[in-house]
């Protein structure tokens, strides 16, 4: 009986430890801070670009990047007071940036309107400055526009989603002019894809707890819901 109780206690302690590690892990641990300028990945001719924010960019990027018609999705920082920021600065919540995703796509295959509709289903647009366990203005729900036409479309789709009552609570997604966009550090790019391909030993150097608890459930649901719109593997 005592051994059984001790075993249960050890299991509980282990689970608590995993949760604590998942939400206290710093991706800068063991990595040298990169100070070199970072420039956006070049977009193919004829492509269009959409920049959105919906919480941790690992989650949004990993889903958008799987859609047929999307050339690539790039994690970055947008909407802040000045360019050239890094992860630590944005995480402070003092720069005004949001963790954002730059989606470069072929408008002949997938429309910007459809990308926006999908965006409103892959994160919670009703929680102000929060997505799940992540809190702060850097985790706000936002759409960044580069032209009056993009702004008009963003407002139209946001209103469409609100009227359809896909979410119980009011939508708080902000629509902001795109400014001071900076790609995130290389180690953030395709983070969940790296996690899926990593060995157990490699995952020890990653935020495996966060990926397993937060990102992976979203990705699994996304792949099921949009199976007919995904790239062929």
From TrEMBL:
Protein origin, superkingdom: Bacteria
Active site, per annotation: 56
Protein's UniProt name: Peptide methionine sulfoxide reductase MsrA
NCBIfam families: msrA (TIGR00401)
Organism: Fimbriimonas ginsengisoli Gsoil 348
Function according to Swiss-Prot or TrEMBL: Has an important function as a repair enzyme for proteins that have been inactivated by oxidation. Catalyzes the reversible oxidation-reduction of methionine sulfoxide in proteins to methionine.
The keyword Oxidoreductase belongs to this UniProt entry's keyword annotation: yes
Residue ranges annotated for the Peptide methionine sulphoxide reductase MsrA domain, each copy included: 50-197
InterPro entries reported for this sequence: Met_Sox_Rdtase_MsrA_dom (IPR002569), Met_Sox_Rdtase_MsrA_sf (IPR036509)
Pfam families for this protein: PMSR
Reaction equation(s) it catalyzes: L-methionyl-[protein] + [thioredoxin]-disulfide + H2O = L-methionyl-(S)-S-oxide-[protein] + [thioredoxin]-dithiol; [thioredoxin]-disulfide + L-methionine + H2O = L-methionine (S)-S-oxide + [thioredoxin]-dithiol
GO molecular function: L-methionine:thioredoxin-disulfide S-oxidoreductase activity; peptide-methionine (S)-S-oxide reductase activity
E.C. designation(s): 1.8.4.11
Entry keyword DNA damage: no
UniProt entry keywords in alphabetical sequence: Oxidoreductase
Similarity remark: Belongs to the MsrA Met sulfoxide reductase family.
């Amino acid at each position: 009986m005592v051994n059984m109780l001790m075993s249960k206690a050890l299991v509980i302690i282990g689970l608590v430890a995993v949760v604590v590690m998942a939400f206290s892990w710093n991706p800068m641990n063991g990595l040298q801070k990169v100070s070199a300028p970072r420039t956006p990945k070049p977009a193919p001719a004829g492509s269009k670009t959409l920049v959105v924010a919906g919480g941790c960019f690992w989650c949004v990027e990993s889903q958008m990047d799987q859609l047929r018609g999307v050339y690539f999705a790039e994690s970055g920082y947008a909407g802040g007071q000045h360019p050239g920021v890094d992860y630590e600065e944005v995480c402070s919540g003092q720069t005004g940036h949001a963790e954002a995703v730059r989606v470069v796509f072929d408008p002949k295959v997938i429309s910007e309107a459809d990308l926006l509709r999908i965006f409103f289903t892959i994160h919670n647009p009703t929680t102000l400055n929060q997505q799940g366990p992540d809190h702060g203005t850097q985790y706000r729900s936002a759409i960044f526009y580069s032209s009056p036409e993009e702004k008009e479309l963003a407002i139209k789709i946001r209103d469409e989603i609100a009227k359809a009552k896909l979410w119980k609570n009011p939508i708080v997604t902000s629509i902001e002019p795109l400014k001071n966009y900076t790609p995130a550090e290389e180690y953030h790019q395709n983070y969940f894809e790296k996690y899926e391909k990593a060995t157990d030993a490699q995952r020890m150097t990653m935020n495996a707890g966060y990926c397993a608890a937060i990102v992976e459930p979203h990705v699994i649901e996304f792949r099921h819901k949009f199976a007919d719109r995904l790239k062929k593997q």
